[in-house]
Amino acid sequence: MESGIIALYQKCPHLGCRVPECKSSQWFECPCHGSQYNRVGEKKAGPAPRGMDRFGVSVTNGNVVVDTGTRFNGPAIGINTTGQEAEGPHCVSGETKH
């Protein structure tokens, strides 16, 4: 993570569903099976095997470059670097808390 910038792959590592941001919770929440991720893609609930995958990011001459050809596995279950809890109600229901 360079300069505090993260580029998340917006597909759930569980089964590949698109994971939109929930405006009320400020988390990413998978509508297919209920996986929930905080704003930096760390898994908080649901059946996903890890956090959201990430793309390579660099900053060159003030320009942010996202390398969509380089994807890294998301963080392991239980990682919580932000301590961020949901800001409000969830858009989907997570099944398993981690």
In DSSP terms (H or I, runs of 4 or more residues), the helix count works out at 0
CATH H-tier superfamily: Rieske [2Fe-2S] iron-sulphur domain
Tell me about the largest β-sheet: 4 strands, antiparallel
- Domain count, please report it: 1
* Structural class category: mainly beta
Number of strands: 7
- Which assembly state applies to the chains in this document? single chain
Order of helices and strands: EEEEEEE
Assigned CATH class: Mainly Beta
| Rg over CA atoms | 13 Å
| N-end to C-end Cα span | 23 Å
- The proportion of strand residues reads 25-35%
Question: Tell me, what's the shape?
Answer: globular
CATH topology: Rieske Iron-sulfur Protein
Give the % helix: under 10%
Strand order of the largest sheet: 2-3-4-5
CATH architecture title: 3-layer Sandwich
Q: Report low-confidence residues grouped into runs of 5 or more.
A: none
Mean pLDDT: 91
Structure description:
This protein has a single domain (1-98), classed as 3-layer Sandwich (Rieske Iron-sulfur Protein), CATH 2.102.10.10. 0% of the residues lie in helices and 30% in strands. The protein has strands at residues 7-8, 21-22, 27-29, 36-37, 43-45, 54-60, 63-72. Strand 3 and strand 4 (36-37) form a beta hairpin. The two termini are 23 Å apart. The model has no long low-confidence stretch (mean pLDDT 91).
Offer a concise description of the structure.
The protein is mostly beta strands and 98 residues long. The protein has strands at residues 7-8, 21-22, 27-29, 36-37, 43-45, 54-60, 63-72. The chain has one domain: Rieske [2Fe-2S] iron-sulphur domain (Rieske Iron-sulfur Protein, 3-layer Sandwich).
